[in-house]
Amino acid sequence: MNNPAKEEARKRIESLTETINHHNRLYYQEDEPEISDFDFDRLLEELVKLENAFPEFKKEDSPTQRIGGTITKTFETATHSVKMLSLGNTYSKEELIAFDERVAKGLGHRNYDYFCELKFDGVAISLVYEKGRLIRAVTRGDGYKGDVVTENVRTIRNIPLTIKDSNLPEYFEVRGEVFLPRREFDKINKERKERNEALLANPRNAASGTLKMQDSGVVAKRRLNCNFYQLIGDDLPINHHHEAVTMMEKWGLNISTAYKKVKDIHATLDYIEYWREKRHQLPVDTDGVVIKVNNYYHQEELGFTAKIPRWAIAFKYQAEKAKTKLQSITYQVGRTGAITPVANLSPVSLAGTTVKRASLHNANEIERLDLHEGDMVWVEKGGEIIPKITAVIKELRNGAEKPISFLKNCPECGTKLERNKGEAKHFCPNAESCPPQVLGRMEHFVSKRAMDIDSLGTERLRALIHQGYIRNPADIYDLPQFKDELMGLEISDEQYVKSSLGYLFVSLKKALYAITESITLKEIEQFLADHESMESIPKIQYFRDLIPKFNKRVEENTASVEKFLKELTFFEFDQIEDYVPVAVVIAVMGDLEKDDIENIKSASIHKSTVHDLITNGKLEFSDTLLGKIKKLKGNTFQEGVIFNMMEGIRNSISQPFPRVLFALGIRNIGENTAVLLAEHFKNMNALQTAADESLLEINGIGNTAVNSIKAYFSKKENLDTLNRLKNHGLNFELDKSDIQWISKKLEGKKILASGKLNHFNRDEIIEFIASHGGIYSKTVSKSLDFIIEGEEMGPSKKEKALKLGIQLISEEEFLQSFTNINNEKNR
Ligand code: IVH
């Protein structure tokens, strides 16, 4: 090669490939990443660029082949060469011994051994390799045939795209379990939480959802992983499962190292015990052990029942439970006002984590369990993240337990709670000004598809609501007036909770930091993390004992923590692990007298932050104390943040009318309906004054929507808000360019969809049709062009359609014709 630039590129491509493969190995095999995702992506990006510039150096199995980007609208199905079976389950030692007896009887001797593996809780997958190349990946489906998800599976970085080995079988299949490592799952949920999206229930569902995503580029970002456990092929040179495992390992397929070949069922039981607790340290969720007869001839002899092999069985670990004490019940107020009781528990170790809270759903649940404060209870963790209380251990009651009467007033705003007939949940009726409910509406108002003010995220909104700056959407546009006041405003973060009576509690971390001097937040965090499973009071006592070790202002700090402990036991509060009453913390900081403490205590009811307590609590604090209290605050608004918020607010003023209409959050008026209304009425005034009949004329608008519109415009507060929004310059009129069609492929077509669709929910299909120029109709009438027939279409609708001779097409056909139209257009 005589072109030096080219030679350089070749070398760089080689070295990048090596580096990326090395980091992939560290990440997947060793679970010890050395570089951040960001740095990793940068390496990958550089490789993509170089490969694009010098395609001749691009290898078939380059790590860039896993970036994804393919869009699959519908997954093809493929038939499995050998049915993907399930396994019989056992839950006890006795059942396992009975299994062993059946094996011995079936073989007529005891000269066999077992191979034990963990049972990974993910999604079963089958990969087919031909001439060493991964050619197909198929989900389990119904066992006979599943979905072809090759493009998505190719993005899993430790699945070899090509395998090289002398004597590699021409054609073979490997099966395994695709999973989302817990760390990835937690990361995704953390991000979803920040974006206010619904949380994924558990890693298994997340993995299964990810595998079926349509955009492999998104799949690639999710970092799925796979453990293999089965090799299938003709004439493989092996007679034992353990050889298959070794062979797969040699080919670079990921095998969990937790396997063991054992000599008999007793050793199997030891294996089960060994992994009972240890398995929680693995990156993947496991729910049991799979025991397989090792020898293939033995397997063949034992054969199958109709559904399951006789040579293998799954031992499932019982849903683990732990005994602990119910300390108190606090209540969370949701964005719709629904109240959810939360059990505060003494910390207890369960399935590898320390549990301190459990969800209780509603008052019926408390009643059903006959829960008393102070009860010893059983908590269990099923497949879900949040543990639940399954029973009270009544034998352990000593008479000191207190019956629980469900909360009467909202802990956030003090309004009397209500419960509708036939509904399980209590709710706070103060929709107007109860902070979490206001937050729900504001989040909608600023959301991307509404006013799109992304500088007003949840935490900032919460802060502004809590400190009285925002109650309704129009208040957002008044914020610029208060720009200077916002400096130093506290962002509430997760450092606060409210007790059942509404007292403000702050995290123990902040409290210890505030009452001591010179001990850093980091040191406190470390201490708390190291002693996570201790109850609060012993933990604080232990902290006090360790103060000499920190070696900073030992005497003062010890005295402070001592006083803190005294006050905590003196005052009666709900006990909430890791949180303490703000009033007590301030009392310690200010060395206050009993009366002062009582005052702070009552002032702290329904306050949202320390800043809120200081500014609105009508309390008088010395400057020294105020200075100290600063340490207790969460993050505060600073200049940059305020600037960004103001800019976002200003920019949002130009959002088009349909978005403004959607942003108002009128019940039952989704994005698509807002577009229909805006298009039809052209301006807010016409909509406001529209008669029911003219509303009903619009396809896609029914009585429910009409009632909601009427209800909205009949409220004086809403009219005031609208007035103010208008004065702030928001668009109350349609500009012709506002409605943007994706295409005109369905122009003038009147379409109805009936039954369950696989690719759209109801709103989505309406929007899809509208965005391509079509008209969605709700009723079967002669004027329809066609009906998309989903699963379980209503029989009467179908009959009517057939009678009227309207064409029925399946969802697949609809999408197909769409792609055809698409292709024709593109040609
Ligand atoms: S062997 C014929 N080994 O469990 C036996 N399966 O209930 C084939 N699974 O569909 C399965 N970990 O999805 C086997 N180490 C393991 C497994 C495992 C998880 C899943 C697999 C299978 C299901 C059977």
Task: Please describe the topology of this protein.
Elements (H helix, E strand, L loop, with lengths): L3 H25 L8 H17 L23 E3 L9 E2 L2 H15 L6 E7 L2 E8 L2 E7 L5 E3 L2 H5 L16 E9 L2 H13 L8 H9 L4 H6 L3 E8 L8 H10 L9 E3 L2 H14 L7 E8 L2 H7 L9 E5 L4 E13 L5 E12 L2 E7 L3 H7 L2 E2 L2 E5 L7 E5 L9 E2 L31 H12 L11 H9 L6 H6 L4 H4 L9 E3 L5 E4 H8 L5 H10 L5 H15 L3 H17 L8 E3 H9 L3 H10 L6 H7 L6 H7 L9 H14 L4 H7 L7 H11 L2 H5 L3 H5 L6 H12 L1 H12 L22 E5 L7 H10 L3 E2 L9 E4 L5 H10 L2 E4 H16 L1
Parallel strand pairs: 2-11, 22-23, 22-24, 24-25
Antiparallel strand pairs: 1-6, 3-9, 3-10, 4-5, 4-7, 7-8, 10-11, 12-13, 12-16, 13-14, 15-18, 16-17, 19-20, 20-21
This protein binds 2-(butylsulfanyl)adenosine.
